[in-house]
Amino acid sequence: MIQTERMGSIIVRLTIMMIILCGLIYPVVMTGIAQTAIPSKANGSLIYSNKHQVIGSKLIGQQFTSNAFFHGRVSSIDYNGAGSGSLNLAPSNKDLTNRIERSVGAWKKENEVPKGGIPIDAVTNSASGLDPDITPQAAYAQVERVAKAAHININTLKELIKEHTQQGAFGAKRVNVVELNLAVQRER
């Protein structure tokens, strides 16, 4: 009986100690290190329009509907970070087929179809539904629409795309739509 009471006391103390160590001390130390070493990333890679106003994040896409801006990927969750995720519909699912057909129709209405066809990322969503990037092909395919609506020279827009094209994981190139649209806004 005494042995069981002692063991119970040790378990309770160990539990309290681990809660304090792992639940309080470790997160505070790691947050402090991150804030010191990489403050921009630790705070969510925020994008500011000026020193005081946050307008987005480099990591989370936004929906742009104006023809004067580049449009990002389709988001099945309307870029709501609280509900991150895709619908995970199978390719044979009629709902997915219908959604893609609507996206293709809307894309064709807004943009000219390039020689190689509509870039796949222009009409499909990412796994998270929050992807801020599109392929350079999807960006170049929107240049004429944006040039007309924003009254910006096509060559200027192509240069902006080139400047904002980054090397992604596994060799895939990508363009951050939020950052590209900020550059478009500055050109207007």
UniProtKB/TrEMBL annotation:
Its keywords, alphabetically, are:
ATP-binding, Cell membrane, Hydrolase, Ion transport, Membrane, Nucleotide-binding, Potassium, Potassium transport, Transmembrane, Transmembrane helix, Transport
TM spans, by residue? 12-34
Q: Which GO terms describe its molecular function?
A: ATP binding; hydrolase activity; P-type potassium transmembrane transporter activity
Q: Which InterPro entries match?
A: KdpC (IPR003820)
- One Pfam family of this protein, by short name? KdpC
* Subcellular locations according to the entry: Cell membrane
In terms of domain of life, where is this protein from? Bacteria
> Cellular component GO terms, alphabetically?
plasma membrane
Q: Nucleotide-binding among the record's keywords?
A: yes
Q: Could you tell me the membrane topology recorded for this protein?
A: Single-pass membrane protein
Q: Kindly give the NCBIfam families that the UniProt entry links to this protein.
A: kdpC, PRK00315.1
**Record function comment:** Part of the high-affinity ATP-driven potassium transport (or Kdp) system, which catalyzes the hydrolysis of ATP coupled with the electrogenic transport of potassium into the cytoplasm. This subunit acts as a catalytic chaperone that increases the ATP-binding affinity of the ATP-hydrolyzing subunit KdpB by the formation of a transient KdpB/KdpC/ATP ternary complex.
Family statement drawn from the similarity comment of this UniProt entry: Belongs to the KdpC family.
How does this protein assemble? The system is composed of three essential subunits: KdpA, KdpB and KdpC.
Q: What is this protein called?
A: Potassium-transporting ATPase KdpC subunit
